[in-house]
Amino acid sequence: MDEKLTQFRKLIKEQSWNILQEKLLSLDNPSIAFLIEHSREFDSAVLFRFLPREKAKDVFQELSPIKQGEIISDLANNAKKVADLMNDMDPDDRTAFFEELPGQVAQRFMQMLSPENRSIAIQLLGYQEDSIGRLMTPKYVAVKSFFTVEETLQHVRKLGRDAETLDVIYVVDYEWKLIDDILIRDVLISGSDVRIENLIGEKCLSLSAYDDQEKAIRIFKDYNRTALPVIDTGGTLLGIVTIDDIFDVAEEEETEDFHKFGAVEDAKINPLHASVSFLYKKRIVWLMALVFVNIFSGAAISRFEHLIESVVALVFFLPLLIDSAGNAGSQSATLIIRALAVGDVQRRDWVRLLGKEFVVALVLGVSMAAGVSLVASWRSPDIVPVVALTMVLAVVVGSMVGMLLPFVFTRFKLDPATASAPLITSIADISGVLIYFSIAKWYLGL
After folding, report:
1. Cα four-point dihedral sign 273, 33, 89, 50
2. Residue 413: which region, alpha, beta or left (left: phi > 0; alpha: psi -120 to 50)?
3. Are residues 284 and 385 in the same domain?
4. Which residue range forms the structural domain that includes residue 189?
5. Percentage of the chain surpassing pLDDT 70?
């Protein structure tokens, strides 16, 4: 793909527009989106302008919010093209785009929508951020339970062209309350006179428009669905959520957790587009906070200054021991945060996990102690017991801290990913220093 980027950049520079358009339109939509996403702002705008309207809509929806904004800025003087683009977008993708815009800009674009699309956009934007209501689309096919298979197929032929998916058809009553969803396959293999009510099952899986998007991720994963209906508190069918939107949300959630775990404040960072000052501001707060946290490590070491002067060899193993504690804690936290995120572990499970983690950490600590003892026996045989015992206790304490912190954050309704690796490492460093020199002082009698 890098070769294609270079090729199209050369065609733009040479202004070989006919060749450029021919080669561009020979690509599929994801490849075009990749080219635009990874091109410079001017080149992206040129490539996008060569796309016909229908293809432009599909490609635009696959771009990141930042690149979408660049494209819109380029089209700012062409109100009709912007209006066509806004109206052609799927409602859920349009909602995601509006969410990324400043309020005044979003309002200006909202006025470009048709009355019907504006009404849909206002409805979707009215739901709480990160709710399932923000993801749903009203483009689905619903039928009444008394429809026959023949009537249902006619209805699908009439309205199915604009539907987000035709894998599933939704069954509603006279008040548009959801009764069930049925696979189009079941309709196709049934007789033309069979009524839909004879095809519905006992239980219908649905989502509430007010639920958090993470719940939708878990349900799609657990039940292996491609689309799910979205209802209000009264059971009225409002729209559907499709698997492609869930993939996007899941990726965003994982990115957010990854950034938080690395102590980066903003989860929506694209380092290619972000300025140096922006990246600096998003990282400096945590790093400065951890500077002051690590002052305690220095204070702990200063308490044992006389001990260090007496046995200089203790310093050789200090980085290894405290790093081992921090690494063990980060490993433990990563496992727990992931388990909490996907629903494999609940907050109430912390007691059961505490005992299991203690046993695992103890075995790990003993194994690592054996390794560090070999090194110490060659370099400083007289402190082998100190180094070995410290390794066991430091790994156990680091693992306990890494496991418990995500549960503590969850208890106070905070994102467990905020129990980030630098914080865990800092706590493990302080405890490791205290454990190491306390054991050395006791063992050496100094």
Report:
1. positive
2. left
3. yes
4. 142-242
5. 83
Closest among 367, 403, 409, 406 to 388, alpha carbons compared: 367
CA dihedral over 252, 257, 258, 260, signed as positive or negative: positive
Each residue's pLDDT tens digit, 395-445:
999 899 888 888 888 777 766 665 566 677 778 888 888 898 889 888 887
Count of CB atoms situated within 10 Å of the CB of 398:
32
DSSP secondary structure of 188-230: HTS-TT-BGGGT--S----EETTSBHHHHHHHHHHHT-SEEEE
Joined together, the tokens standing for residue 192 give 């033309």
159 exposure class (CB count in 10 Å sphere: 0-12, 13-18, 19+): middle
**351: CATH:** 1.10.357.20
Q: Tell if the pTM clears 0.70, that is, is over it.
A: no
- Reply yes or no on whether the pLDDT at 108 is more than 50: yes
SS3 letters across 100-151: CCCHHHHHHHHCCCCHHHHHHHHHHHCCCCCEHHHCCECCCCEEECCCEHHH
3-state secondary structure of 234: coil
Contact 437, 394 (CB under 8 A): no
Q: Which two tokens stand for residue 56?
A: 């432009």
Round to whole Å and give the CA distance between 9 and 15.
10
Report the C-alpha gap between 346 and 118 in whole angstroms.
Answer: 40
Residues in the chain: 446
Strands ordered across the beta sheet of 142-144: 142-144, 168-172, 178-183
What's the total number of domains in the chain? Answer: 3
